[in-house]
Amino acid sequence: MNQYFATVARGLEALAAQELEQLGAHSVEAGFCGVSFEGDRTLLYRVNLWARLPFRILMHLDQFDCLDADDLYQGIKAIDWSEFLTPEMTLAVNATGKNDQLNHTHFTALKVKNAIVDQQMDRFGERSDVDTHEADLRIGVHIDDNGCTVSLDSSGNSLHRRGYRPAVGAAPLKESLAAALIQMSGWQPDQMFYDPLCGSGTLPLEASLKALNIAPGMFREHFGFETWLDFDQDLLARLIQEADDNRLDALPAPIWGSDRNPEVVDQAIVNAKNCGLANHVYFSSLDLAEVVAPADSGVVFCNPPYGERLGRDSDLGAFYKLLGNVLKQQFKGWTAFVLSGNKQLSQTIGLKCAERTAVLNGALPCQLMKYELY
């Protein structure tokens, strides 16, 4: 059994821990901005393929006492890097954390790189090149008080970048946060899902992937572990085939999105095509004032502008009031969820909130507000 650590957005640790347990992880423990767990290589590949909430899955390599730069250099050089890296492979080092002596992550990363390539030169007379964009092996080091933790990044690019979304609006939600919000809401695939402010479609698309049991990693070009020396291509191919076999052919209930901007609706349609959902999820160009409920019941979900990046110069108070009126008048029998990063604006919705959940959208404190519409 190997030790792993899934990095997640702050505040989503407990939710991510539940997801990892459902995927078969052992000894799951939520921490700060991540979840530690144990499992074999099959689990590592499966989590990268299926997990909707984490950014990266790190495999624990070593941990040692580390007070200063010399401790760091000697500790890194004591690891047998030939098990993971040949001089023909490229490497990248990402450093986080600090202590009194190691308080600059760029210096820490440089010291780690030097220790690794010095070991290679001693053994082979040649060394790996650094490639910060597409490295064959991504190494993570975390300095914490008097210790250093060393990991390998099995994911490569962040898992929130599913690969289906080259087209995005001006202030898109991360796919992982959209998936987390849907999970928090308790929405079930047999309920209709409608986002009347859908932008480039992230919320309806993540809902569709969940409803059709589609692994979010199916659209990525590659994972970090695919360039590791012990990569098992047959295992990954089997897991991808299993995922393909288990996807559903049709949505249990309709999933819709609309937006007043025809250009971002076109982006949403492109993104739906990229993940094979063009015939499943329905997008249309529609002003909020024209929106009506397309069914007797369901879940309406939206992420209106906060005034941070979008709509700063427009009358957002009137827009939020309109949103409240549309929900109240057109969506009787539905449950609404609104993500807002502006408390003052959210009060102008004019509806009684049944529940509020604190959420971070990047560094911005937000609230996911639930409204029961009668």
UniProtKB/TrEMBL annotation:
It holds the Pfam family UPF0020. PROSITE patterns: N6_MTASE (PS00092), THUMP (PS51165), UPF0020 (PS01261). InterPro entries: DNA_methylase_N6_adenine_CS (IPR002052), RlmKL-like_Mtase (IPR000241), RlmKL-like_Mtase_CS (IPR053943), RlmL_1st (IPR054170), SAM-dependent_MTases_sf (IPR029063), THUMP_dom (IPR004114). Residues 43-154 form the THUMP domain. The keyword Cell inner membrane does not apply. Keywords: Methyltransferase, RNA-binding, Transferase. One of its GO terms (molecular function) is rRNA (guanine-N2-)-methyltransferase activity. Signal peptide: none annotated. Transmembrane segments: none annotated. This is THUMP domain-containing protein. It comes from Pseudanabaena catenata USMAC16. The lineage of its organism: Bacteria, Bacillati, Cyanobacteriota, Cyanophyceae, Pseudanabaenales.
